[in-house]
């Protein structure tokens, strides 16, 4: 029998905590070990000896919000993974959460299947950004990268594998995650990513995604 993944749920709305707990505990491999209404309560629970593998937390909470909580968990309990579950889809908040040390970010309108998938993914050592929030971010950043006419390369020839990697990059997958899915090495994917930048004449991943979407290379 597998050892269950231990989860601590933090949200200032008890109905949310109870709902999430009820749904994820239907999984044989997940156990909710504690609940908290804010970041301070989470820290007290951790200091008392509660030892979750994952802290599933909202951002907006009284006394201590999810971002500050994430920073303190990263500093004092680096073995614990933080998964954000929130209704906030602003680009700045997503970036702030990951800069604080979060390992995953989900919107509250995702299915319970994706919540469980994200928990299992974080437990296995990976990060997770849901497709929904990834697409929202892509829409928000597209206007930030204006392509000059002489920079546009519309006659780019990409292999089937390169297109597959492009789609995974656009979905927010890391080099390690792409390597795992394609059964290759992380170093190979790093090389593929650099080749894509070179072929399209782009300087970074955000510009690459914007370029391929604007030019219809991927949907």
What does this structure look like?
- The chain has 219 residues and is an alpha/beta fold.
- It is built from 10 helices and 6 strands, in the order E-H-E-H-E-H-E-H-E-H-E-H-H-H-H-H.
- The chain has helices at 14-24, 39-47, 66-76, 91-100, 112-123, 131-141, 160-170, 175-182, 186-200, 205-214; strands at 5-10, 30-36, 54-57, 81-86, 104-107, 128-129.
- The chain has a 6-stranded parallel sheet, sandwiched between helices.
- Helix 2 packs parallel to helix 3 (66-76), helix 8 (175-182) packs across helix 9 and helix 9 crosses helix 10.
- The radius of gyration is 19 Å and the shape is elongated.
- It starts with a strand and ends in a 5-residue tail after the last helix.
- Residues 143-153 have low confidence and may be disordered.
Shape: elongated
Low-confidence stretches: 143-153
Percent helix among the residues?
A: 40-55%
Instruction: Determine the strand fraction and express it as a percent band.
Output: 5-15%
End-to-end gap: 42 Å
User: Treating each run of at least 4 consecutive H or I residues as one helix, how many helices?
Assistant: 10
Q: Which H/E pattern describes the elements? A: EHEHEHEHEHEHHHHH
Helix/strand/pairing category: alpha/beta
- Strands ordered across the widest β-sheet: 2-1-3-4-5-6
Radius of gyration: 19 Å
Mean pLDDT: 87
Number of strands: 6
Largest sheet: 6 strands, parallel
């Amino acid at each position: 029998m597998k050892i269950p993944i231990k989860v601590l749920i933090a949200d200032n709305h008890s109905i949310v905590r109870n709902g999430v707990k009820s749904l994820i505990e239907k999984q044989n491999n997940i156990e909710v070990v504690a609940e908290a209404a804010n970041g301070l309560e989470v820290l007290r629970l951790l200091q008392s000896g509660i030892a979750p593998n994952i802290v599933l937390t909202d951002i907006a909470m009284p006394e201590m919000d999810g971002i500050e909580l994430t920073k303190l968990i990263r500093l004092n309990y680096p073995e614990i993974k933080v998964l954000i579950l929130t209704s906030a889809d602003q680009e700045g908040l997503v970036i702030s959460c990951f800069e604080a040390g979060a390992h995953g970010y989900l919107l509250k309108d995702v299915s319970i299947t994706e919540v469980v998938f994200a928990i299992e993914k974080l437990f296995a050592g990976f990060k997770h950004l849901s497709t929904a929030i990834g697409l929202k971010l892509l829409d928000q950043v597209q206007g930030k990268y204006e392509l000059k006419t002489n920079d546009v390369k519309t006659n780019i020839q990409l292999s089937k594998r390169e297109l597959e990697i492009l789609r995974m990059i656009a979905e927010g997958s890391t080099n390690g995650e792409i390597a795992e899915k394609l059964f290759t090495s992380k170093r190979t994917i790093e090389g593929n990513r650099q080749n894509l930048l070179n072929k399209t004449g782009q300087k970074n991943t955000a510009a690459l995604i914007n370029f391929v979407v604007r030019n219809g290379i991927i949907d």
